[in-house]
Specification:
globular, alpha+beta, 4 strands
Length: 70
Amino acid sequence: DLLKIDVEGAEYEIFSSDGFRNSAHKIGTIIGEYHRGASEIIGPTLTSLGFNFIDLTPGGTSGKFVARRK
């Protein structure tokens, strides 16, 4: 399944929540935007849940990403 997410800065709160952690195994690909430099936090979080995290706009405080199940 595909999850598209653009939550205007709440990425870390969502990806680190118990609800997401309990459902992540059902998701094959996540595409979305991050804000406030969150890629440095959500990348490792999604990697720990079995995703390959790709920052499509590295170096910025906001940007786009793709995460695919390993």
